[in-house]
Amino acid sequence: MDSCNIFINLLLTITLCFFTLPAGAQIVYLYTYCPNSTTYPVNSIYDRNLNSLLSSLSSNSTQKNGFYNTTAGQDPSNTAYGLYLCRGDVAMDVCQDCVVTASKEIVRKCPRNNESVIYYDECMLRYSNKSFFSQVQYRPWLPILNTQNVSEVERFMRLLEKTMNDTAARAANDQSGSGKKFATGEVNFTSFQSLYTLVQCTPDLSAQACNSCLHEAIARLPSCCEGKRGGRSIFPSCNVIYELYQFYRVEATAPAPSPVPVLLPPAPRSRGKSQISTGTIIAIVVPTVISVLAFAIGCCLLVRKSRKKFNTTLEDQSVGGDISTIESLQFDFGVIEAATNKFSYDNKLGEGGFGVVYKGILPNGQEIAVKRLSLYSGQGLEQFKNEVVLVSKLQHRNLVRLLGFCVEGEEKILIYEFVPNKSLDYFLFDPEKQGLLDWSRRYKILGGIARGILYLHEDSRLRIIHRDLKTSNILLDADLNSKISDFGMAKILGVDQTQDNTNRIVGTYGYLSPEYAMHGQYSLKSDIYSFGVIVLEIISGKKISSFDQSDDAEDLLSYAWKHWSKGTALQFMDEALMDSYSKNEVIRCLQLGLLCVQENPAKRPTMGTIVLMLDSYSVALPMPQKPAFFLHSGTNQWKELGPNQTASKSMPCSVDEASITEVYPR
Ligand SMILES: *[C@@H]1O[C@H](CO)[C@@H](O)[C@H](O)[C@H]1NC(C)=O
Ligand SMILES: *[C@@H]1O[C@H](CO)[C@@H](O)[C@H](O)[C@H]1NC(C)=O
Ligand SMILES: *[C@@H]1O[C@H](CO)[C@@H](O)[C@H](O)[C@H]1NC(C)=O
Ligand SMILES: *[C@@H]1O[C@H](CO)[C@@H](O)[C@H](O)[C@H]1NC(C)=O
Ligand SMILES: *[C@@H]1O[C@H](CO)[C@@H](O)[C@H](O)[C@H]1NC(C)=O
Ligand SMILES: *[C@@H]1O[C@H](CO)[C@@H](O)[C@H](O)[C@H]1NC(C)=O
Ligand SMILES: *[C@@H]1O[C@H](CO)[C@@H](O)[C@H](O)[C@H]1NC(C)=O
Ligand SMILES: *[C@@H]1O[C@H](CO)[C@@H](O)[C@H](O)[C@H]1NC(C)=O
């Protein structure tokens, strides 16, 4: 598995999928959102209504503003609601082709689902048994990126945000009378490169709703597309796109020739060449490659989707009619909205792999942290509620408490206790602040983390594997007690916990054990590995991910191993610790850290043993074996993922999974 190479896989994928392209197709398919959790019976009233809805959308596909919403059915409980939206710049005949195709394909790709969304480059079409007109919907989130890099990343991202903001303002307050909430923008980036932006909302939204939707889409761009030449952030209600070439059609010019797919490796372009002369080549080739890529990825996502199985029944854990508990944990959406000032940007605390976190204050003055889930949850509402109830019962002083949840339409929100200090990484890796954590504090923090995990692993009745332990998931309260956050997410999101391998890896590269990262096998010992990485980070004050940035530096694990085997443990230690340390403790912790990151999971200690080792110096530690340096073999593909990317976004080892690097629904 060490030869897995994203580029090769991607090309292979493109090639495979390219040949399944229907002849003459001009419309580029992107993705279908197919929740599958609720299906209707064939020949039911809803089935018939849906059919008539889709044919009415098709036959009304020549609307001037490229948008049409309608309903079918009288009886409210069987009404089908639907709309289509064509990209603001496409010609009416293309729009019509796209909508007609979409209305056929949506039932083929997503049979008998109560709701679904299908995306093409040129249009999107969605339906549901619930009314969603005039409502902003943030799920699913579909990011797509152009794999080519941009120069001057920081300046580019600032320019992008500003230009996007300007374009969004024009789209939301569209005065052109076109009936579209659509705008494009163009600014100079360098003397020979311009940045092109396109934003659009479904016109049923109010100006204000459109504005909020676009800002959320813009705010998420950095998390998919930082430093990339092009990207898209797509919600059902709105989307934003940017590229360094003019990808949209400008009114009054001849329509661009339809792309002829060309297979080109997405290799970096040499910089020495005259950019002006390559401008046209880029403009022709890049859109084509992207279209093909996008198609390939969409195509393969589907393949992947169909292989994914969510086992939503977890044995021995049913809540069994615990309705009162569910009720007491459920927060009203209005209350949460008010508490977070409508999820205002100012209240944003951060963004993790599972969504954006906001600070909120309840009417009674209680401070809370509100996590707006962006990952698609593979299970129905009841199951989600049940899992939240179970996870909220996990209570320990070293765990962040889950207070409840809130559901609004598609949107799922978790409410946690608010922990006033920031996360461990905030202190540990900041040269200004790492001095605040002297050795005895670090040792105390370590002990807290260990006890928290021990509770998850052994003491609670659920036996939870955290699966994404890292310093940014360890919060510190005012007394610097460690509190682990984000546990139980696999459960809440309905990722199967009962098997020992999975198609969907949650976790962050660098912290993932080799067997988990490479083969998707997880166990309690995968958490032990991540804990070992945290131990080494705490001792050294160095980030696991900081190493692969510098050119030839070794990684944290081999660095630790080198000092351990040479008997120079104190040189591995963070200089900021000065003489606050206990030599004996530092050496034991280094040994413990190395024991935890051993390649053979069976050789790693259990959490129970670790707590014992930390509490008592009289427990003898075994000799560690050299860790596996699998992540830093010098090959490119790991860096491609970026140091802090959550692995659920990208899986390196097979064709369909590699493609997730480019498109990932949330
Ligand atoms: C799907 O929608 C129809 C129409 O609203 C409804 O009758 C049916 O119960 C829904 N299916 C499920 C599984 O809830
Ligand atoms: C939409 O299509 C239906 C038939 O499918 C037709 O009856 C209706 O008039 C059309 N609406 C518009 C606005 O064209
Ligand atoms: C389309 O959406 C608008 C805005 O929500 C709504 O007022 C209108 O009734 C919808 N049209 C149909 C045919 O349902
Ligand atoms: C729509 O279907 C969902 C299940 O998908 C069901 O819970 C809900 O009651 C249905 N809504 C209406 C209005 O029938
Ligand atoms: C983009 O930049 C990353 C590092 O920032 C590098 O690893 C990668 O190879 C670059 N990709 C391309 C296509 O140039
Ligand atoms: C863009 O808009 C957001 C939200 O209104 C704002 O927070 C941000 O500062 C703006 N950025 C720029 C560069 O104008
Ligand atoms: C962008 O650059 C071109 C050529 O250098 C120049 O003619 C044009 O005015 C510039 N546009 C803006 C908006 O600055
Ligand atoms: C959803 O339904 C489609 C069509 O039956 C199926 O191919 C796919 O595997 C299902 N997806 C999931 C996640 O179960």
From TrEMBL:
InterPro entries, sorted: GNK2 (IPR002902), GNK2_sf (IPR038408), Kinase-like_dom_sf (IPR011009), Prot_kinase_dom (IPR000719), Protein_kinase_ATP_BS (IPR017441), Ser/Thr_kinase_AS (IPR008271)
Family matches, as Pfam families: Pkinase (PF00069), Stress-antifung (PF01657)
Domain Protein kinase: 343-618
Keywords carried by this UniProt record: ATP-binding, Glycoprotein, Kinase, Membrane, Nucleotide-binding, Receptor, Repeat, Serine/threonine-protein kinase, Signal, Transferase, Transmembrane, Transmembrane helix
SUPFAM superfamilies: Protein kinase-like (PK-like) (SSF56112)
The keyword NAD is assigned to this record: no
Keyword Cell membrane tagged: no
Compartment(s) where it occurs, according to its Swiss-Prot or TrEMBL record: Membrane
Highest taxon above the source species: Eukaryota
Positions that bind ATP: K371
CDD domains, alphabetized: Gnk2-like, STKc_IRAK
Signal peptide (from-to): 1-25
Cross-referenced SMART domains: S_TKc (SM00220)
Transmembrane segments: 281-303
Main location: membrane
Protein's membrane topology: Single-pass membrane protein
Ranges of residues in domain Gnk2-homologous: 28-132, 138-247
Protein name, UniProt field: Cysteine-rich receptor-like protein kinase 10
Species assigned in the record: Hevea brasiliensis
Higher taxonomy: Eukaryota, Viridiplantae, Streptophyta, Embryophyta, Tracheophyta
